[in-house]
Amino acid sequence: MNASSPKGYTIGQTAENFTLKNVTGDYVSLSDYQNAKGVIVIFTCNHCPFAQLYEQRIIELHKNYAPKGYPVIAINPNSPIVAPEDSFEKMQELAKQKRYPFAYLFDEHQTVYPKFGATRTPHVFLLDENRAVRYIGAIDNNAEAPGPNTQRHLENAIHALINGNNPNPANTKSIGCTIKKAPKPKPATSEVPASNSSTAEPVAGN
To answer: pLDDT, tens digit, for every residue of 74-133?
Structure first.
């Protein structure tokens, strides 16, 4: 079953470049990683319990695979209007506290995650050297207690690319919290106050 969003990238499609604000205050682009053999794009956040469960694993993924040419780019897609804990300032606090070794970017205007088709946090998109999407889905199949029998989907996909093979499976179901979309602004009203809405005929002056 294809677990990717029908409105986002599918396996084999090339991800467009994007530029987002990092917790350092600098702006980071996908094109900044031109020398990387691949990129692990993970949509995640602060407040989601699943994101919290996977936080240390994401750190370890970057530490283990960035030296092999596969760095992590973490992106927070949530609206702080809906999830205040996912504000940029809170992102900075968490990244500093946990010493994130990877870029943690804020999709402030929520323009990047829809292109990928991300629907949950965490949601993984593994890109190859040409920035084609090669794996979409979960980090593994055991959020709470990974063990010897855990299926490490993302790591297996990375190893497949390293060995020149296609990831199998290329899609898995992402388990996590739904992405928090910003509420749509209310349309401006153009109603005329009732007291001024009279259309009585003007009275002729003497």
So the answer is: 999 999 999 999 999 999 999 999 999 999 999 999 999 999 999 999 999 999 999 999
Q: What is the pLDDT of residue 188?
A: 63
On the question of pLDDT at 203 being above 90, the answer is no
Alpha helices in the chain (DSSP H): 49-65, 88-98, 113-116, 153-162
Residue 179 near residue 77, CB atoms below 8 Å: yes
* Segment 31-44, tens digit of pLDDT: 999 999 999 999 99
- What percent of the chain has a predicted confidence (pLDDT) above 90? 83
Cβ-based neighbour number of residue 98 at 10 Å: 13
Query: What amino acid is encoded at 195 in this protein?
Result: S
Distance CA 30, CA 46 (A): 22
What secondary structure letter does DSSP report for 18? -
Count CB atoms within 10 A of the CB of residue 164: 6
Which residues, other chains included, contact 29 with Cβ-Cβ below 8 Å and sequence gap of 6+? 17, 18, 19
The structure tokens listed for 52 are 């919290």
Considering only CA atoms, which of 12, 18, 206 is closest in space to residue 112?
18
Pairing of strands 120-121, 177-178: antiparallel
Rg value, the chain, Cα: 22
| Token pair for 156 | 């297996």
